[in-house]
Amino acid sequence: MMKIGLVILLFAFVAAGCTTQSKARLKERNAFLVGQNTALQQQQTPAAGVTVLGAVQNSAVPWVAGLTLAQAVATANYLGLHEPRRIILTRQGESAVLEAKVLLNGAVIPLEPGDLIELR
Asked: I want to staple 119 with a disulfide (CB 3.0 to 4.6 A). Which of 14, 54, 70, 96 is the partner?
């Protein structure tokens, strides 16, 4: 009877040890997956900034609070032979066409991170 009790106690110890190890492995695996997901999200999220397409030297303009369309175009350093006639601003899939004269007349158009600007 004593041997049976000892065997049961030994199995309980082994089972408890396996459960603790499996829980530790599960925690490690979950932590690994959280890290992997974070890295993937950072890779898939466009860098905080705006993109300027057209004849520009720097198409990636870093985001700063209060960034305007005129500032982004100046930062991109337009290299075209002629001034652009139209500017297409795309935000979250919706586009607006602006005449470039709007900027020359001093209009202040605020931008948001992820905006896409096309100079034509």
From this structure: 54
